[in-house]
Amino acid sequence: MLRSSSPSDYALHRTVRWVALANLAYFGVEFAVALAIGSVALFADSIDFLEDASVNLLIFLALGWSLRARARVGMALAGILLLPALALLWALWQKLHAPVPPAAMPLSLTGLGALAVNLACAMALARYRHHAGSLTRAAFLSARNDAFANVAIVVAGGLTAWMRSVWPDVVVGLAIAAMNADGGARGVDSRARGTPRIKG
To answer: What 3-state class would DSSP assign to 132?
Structure first.
């Protein structure tokens, strides 16, 4: 139950629930394509989608749960984030030992899909970025900044088709992983405990 019955709180509640579900759904899409074509960049970006889904779930819970309850959920979500991170390391290891470039067209199309999802989430959250404190602002900035990574994935797909090399995908994947290094599991856990970390 919401602590406040104001219309704006109910609207925010619905919005962050939608954003969390959208991020979770596209994590599944991106992770599946990454597995299918062996893309380091898509693995890295899928981790970011899972992180953003976790952050928005925490905002959803923050509107009605105690800090202790949010902290417990945050620790569980932080642990879940380690699973796709291990998959990223495995994909990078495979690329370095068997340098087969990913399929360029699925790479670019999946990047375009990710861009559409992040832009939609950023627009949905834009009106609430000052509403519920730094948690909501963090989610808005994260969705906005992630769009740049998605553009890089699209470009990597084009370069892969042109160069027939693994390196565009690997370089973009490592750049996305580095960009998210200060977020990740520690960021989700700290946001759950009330000390948000904002990427970018």
So the answer is: coil
Instruction: Compute the distance between CA of residue 120 and CA of residue 140 in angstroms, rounded to an integer.
Output: 11
Give the lowest-confidence range in 20-29, 47-56, 152-161: 47-56
Token look-up 């970006």 returns 45
Gap between the Cα atoms of 100 and 119, Å rounded: 31
110-122 pLDDT, tens digit per residue, is 999 999 999 999 8
Copy the structure tokens of residue 92: 């990078």
At 192, is the secondary structure helix, strand, or coil? helix
Answer yes or no: are the C-beta atoms of 132 and 64 closer than 8 Å.
Answer: no
CA dihedral 117, 53, 193, 149 (to 10 degrees): -50
CA distances from 64 to 12, 36, 57, 134, 191 (A): 12, 40, 12, 16, 15
SS3 131: coil
196: which DSSP letter?
-
d(CA 91, CA 85): 10
Place of tokens 């992983």: 177
Q: Is pLDDT at 155 greater than 50 in this prediction?
A: yes
Longest dimension (CA), the chain: 57
Give dist(CA 95, CA 62) in Å, integer. Answer: 40
